[in-house]
Design brief:
Helix content: over 70%
Number of strands: 0
Radius of gyration: 16 Å
Number of helices: 3
Length: 69
Amino acid sequence: MRWLKGIFGELIGLFIEDGSFAVAIVVWLGLVWFVLPRVSLPPVLQGPVLFAGLLAILLESVLRAARRR
């Protein structure tokens, strides 16, 4: 049964290397999905807000990985 867990872990590792990065993206997407329709923000700015948040998450993840090395 341990070999099955190892295979599953390797398979997940192919798609998700950094768990906190993936969680941060999911949280940001949920937050944007919930908050943006309720805020009086023009629709033309909603895309850039989504992009800016994802970019900030990516930059934080890259800086954290660079500090580890």
